[in-house]
Specification:
- The structure is a single chain.
- The protein has a 4-stranded antiparallel beta sheet with strand order 2-3-6-5, with no helix packed on it. A 3-stranded antiparallel beta sheet has the order 1-7-4.
- The protein is rod-shaped and about 85 Å long.
- The chain is of the alpha+beta class.
- The longest helix has 30 residues, at 3-32.
- The chain has helices spanning 3-32, 34-41, 89-95, and strands spanning 44-48, 54-55, 65-70, 79-84, 102-104, 107-112, 120-128.
- It starts with a helix and ends with a strand.
């Protein structure tokens, strides 16, 4: 066997070994995090009723009220996305619902300029679960 052929075989075998080890590591990581990955895509419905809003003026901004929704296991490090149902868009706009949803320990926080006059429905899901 020529030196070139021998070098190519060594390179090929090393590349195959590295690819195999990389795939095994990736598979292990995916398997270890499968519960987190499956939780990311699951939507959760919510309803923001007209009661239970708390006045908030600490930051001096436009978000004068907030409402906490209990979510067991939620942390301040989690990241979520919330979507308002089509039929609730007018109610969300009328009360000045902030498009940002905050995460805290065991709650989601929604903020508004004024208390809504009708319930707002939507759904949220994890983008990142710490």
């Amino acid at each position: 066997m020529s030196k070139i052929t021998e070098s190519l075989n060594k390179f090929y075998n090393m590349a195959v070994k590295n690819i195999k080890e990389g795939l095994e590591s990736l598979t292990s990581t995916v398997n270890a995090n499968s519960s987190k990955l499956s939780a990311l895509g699951a939507p959760h419905s919510f309803t923001l009723t007209t009661d239970g809003w708390t006045a908030y003026t600490a930051d001096g901004g436009d978000n004068n009220y907030y409402k906490s929704l209990a979510v067991s296991g939620m942390t301040t490090s989690d990241v979520v996305d919330a979507t308002i149902n089509y039929n609730s868009i007018a109610a969300a706009r009328d009360c000045g619902l902030n498009p940002t949803v905050e995460t805290a320990n065991n709650v989601l926080l929604f903020r508004t300029k004024k208390i809504p006059t009708e319930s707002i429905q939507g759904s949220w899901h994890y983008i990142y679960k710490a």
